[in-house]
Specification:
The protein is an alpha+beta fold and 96 residues long. The protein has one domain (3-95). Helices cover 18% and strands 39% of the residues. A hairpin with a 2-residue loop joins strand 3 and strand 4 (72-79).
Amino acid sequence: MGRLKIERLGGLAGFGLPGSKLRSIGEQDIEALTAADRAAVEALFANKNRPQKPGPERDAFHYKLTRENNGQDETVEVPEAAVPQALKACVSDKLM
């Protein structure tokens, strides 16, 4: 199955936006996730062409998830509420 690259974007400070000196990134082996978390990730990629409803909170984070699929990177951006806790936990802030 491979690895999943995770990036947290947005929020009040605009993490990860062009010109930002702070990135919130992480990686996770897909095989290391629970069956429920793997199913949640699969559902996110399966629904990537459907618009995601923004959360009611302002300045909320959203996540960019990238995985390799058939030799090509596949990326989806989703609101924070849709991301399994196991993926959120592997993200750390890095000064660029």
